[in-house]
Amino acid sequence: SSSAFEKSLDSTLKLDPTTYGQTIDQEGLYIRKYIPELKHFPAKFIYEPWNAPHTVQAAAGCVIGTDYPRPMVDHGKAAERNQQRMEKQQALLLQRCSMKQPEHLKPSDESEIKVFFGF
Q1: CA triple 91-74-19, angle to 5 deg
Q2: What are phi and psi of 74, to 5 degrees?
């Protein structure tokens, strides 16, 4: 929704799927149900199985890089890069509107739309 996008432009929150999962489902029940390759991993490693020692991976019957792919994204680096892009976008929007920090970033009526798009 536009309000969610608006909030994200004005946010320092960096959502990492591994830490989010650990927060809402510490035992990894969702992962165990929908990713059967990982179901035998200890809860400690269920969200980051690539960090498990090889012995733990072997005991779980899933060696990362052989039985299950290695991570495609470094979430920390991606979150930092995305945060920088969001801050840049926010600055561009504020510059386009010739505004200081507004109460909201989306135009809420026709007059704000005209200011926002420079009409």
Answers
A1: 90
A2: -90, 105
